[in-house]
């Protein structure tokens, strides 16, 4: 065994400090790693090294770096715990060189530069999942800048003084670090966990750990991060941020056994042109699309298994679909939620396709689900004939149209006229939110002259406006009115009625079949029009009766607010402006059993923008998938305190970045909350108000309709807060583990929608 005295070790520390990016020179690290495996047993130094890596780099130690520092500490008799190390830093030159080898490394300098504010802020964020208290940050900065305290010594002092929930969070992150390092301590694993891009990916993984994370969740996240590294999806480092590659995405074309043989040649052709079309729209770091044609299984549970791991799907022909009982008529209707969320365990199928689930809220179009596995659902569309005798011919014709479209989508898009028509044909004497052209403010999909809102006139006039939209090759047609599975009804004003006008005109299946439909996308905000379980349903007929490629609507009787289309416009349609497909804009936004789509969801309206574009970079990361789900762990709340975590928004792009936040968090729940049978709750999480708010039109604070503008090269700080919500029924705080989501929208074509999946814990 080679013998190293303290002088040799100090020289090694100097070489490490001034060497290339990483924890130690590669050859030296590997020699130390081999020596450790051969002659040393793990001891307390391994824990300490993980703590130092987390403190200075925000990530787990790599196996070689861990071996290097454990050996260096053991051979020199350095302390093996943080308290003693912090105490020894000021009087022991070896300890000081050891710690400074980390704090002054190229990796640390790349993360924090020479700015102690960034170093201390990152320590609190990486170690405790929260912002530093202003007075605490000021204290340490004064000690560093005026009292000449070494920044590294300040870090050690902060960690040595951590207690309570901060200490619990830090320890859990160290536990996760040990699991990760052990998992990559193989020849293949060590080669994967190397370089700034892989460091950034694993740093993000560790950022999701909080004090209540359990080992099973941590191991799952560790496995996912190693899989991402193994498939070449490490982050791609730029000058001031990292590109997060979208990775592979798979679309399932599941065809019923009865139609598999006759449709397979067309499905193979669609597979080829659809993959080419989507990959041509992805961008440099965007998704790599793969299309999979499969014969669908015969039962709902088996189809759910086929859909696991998919990004989206089209179910073609008589594929079995889940059902639920319509609470109004008592009949069975389609329920695509179990297919959109195949990992969700709330659905059971003891007797065929009828789903059994607890706490179902049948009559509401929004089914807020608080289980993270039961949201962010994929887009699942149906493609089946309007009636059994017509199905074979209709499916072949519609598949031929889809093949032609995806063979040259930008050229095909030009066949439709740019335009959006909204027909409000549902009579409400006191409509709290009448249709308003201002819903399209700040959304570049259409010019004002291309927008049409029919909100006045008699029933016949409104229905005529809708029919005109359907037959005039308009891109988007929306109808808001009463309906059933075989007709829709237009209403005009009736001063003597609060609801249900005497001025009503029906639009039947027979009338629909007599028309030549040319609209590209149709939204039917009408009850039961998408109940394709019955022959000659209105939605199925509309899709198959002409050139229409996609139809959306309700599968059952459902209530919806009169401003439903406002939410569609601002939370979904906006991203069509930047070349997104309907499948992308629908993903994660159809969390309701009452909504279904039929047709081709992979159509688009616009090409991907060219020329100077903005970039939405969040905490140094630029996501390249739509939508992106970003997990955020916040610091613990104790004694009803509010903890905050600042998100740094930067725009390294070449044009103006415009962002907007959802009006409120969604799906918020806590393990200590009194059960709510409706599944509806809010609170716990929220963005702090900023003054003044940029471009404020309405909304509260800095959310809702308010648009924040970030010029190229500029930044914006958004502070996300957490505290236990007050249960109005029990007049008490709800403690326990909280989860919830918040959504950010932007005009970045590669990153138009970010959903933050938040977690935190509130302790009494």
Automatic annotation (TrEMBL):
Keyword Signal part of the UniProt annotation:
yes
Alphabetical list of InterPro entries matching this protein: Ig-like_fold
What keyword terms does UniProt attach to this protein? Signal
Which residues belong to the signal peptide in this entry? 1-23
The answer to whether UniProt assigns keyword Signal to this entry is yes
Question: This protein is called what?
Answer: DUF4214 domain-containing protein
